[in-house]
Amino acid sequence: MGDMIKNYGFETPEYVSKEDFENFKMSYQVILERRYALKRFCRKGIPAQFRPHVWMTLSGAYKMMKDHPQVYETASTSQPPKKILTTIMADIPRTFPENAHFSQTQGKGDLLPVLQRILIAFAVTFPEIGYCQCWAMQPVHT
């Protein structure tokens, strides 16, 4: 196989010079190395202090917030159908009752309002889906 036939057996197009191809490979290698480093970092465990930022970055949430700044605020402060709101409000206190962040009886329950806003925002944004009881656990586990 010739010099310009690469990994997958395809010939490099004539309009791509060997120099252009080598330059591309060198610049892309930096991206790949960062990607592999990120994978290793994630697999070994992301330190707790970095998890929120890493999650928001990798999930695309920061980009969505930048591109659509008012969507979450509008959805999370909207009123869902009464049946859905009643279900969410009944579910939230039962979510992780042994966790101090979610228990008003055993702790401060400071994350209950956050979870409520997330679930309401989802139910309002996707009315055809609404709300399912097990979803109260998802934002915590992801």
TrEMBL record:
InterPro entries xref list: Rab-GAP-TBC_dom, Rab-GAP_TBC_sf, Rab_GAP_TBC_domain
A Pfam cross-reference name: RabGAP-TBC
Origin superkingdom: Eukaryota
Domain Rab-GAP TBC: 45-142
GO MF term list: GTPase activator activity; small GTPase binding
Signal sequence, renumbered to the chain: none
Protein name listed in UniProt: Rab-GAP TBC domain-containing protein
Source lineage: Eukaryota, Metazoa, Spiralia, Lophotrochozoa, Platyhelminthes
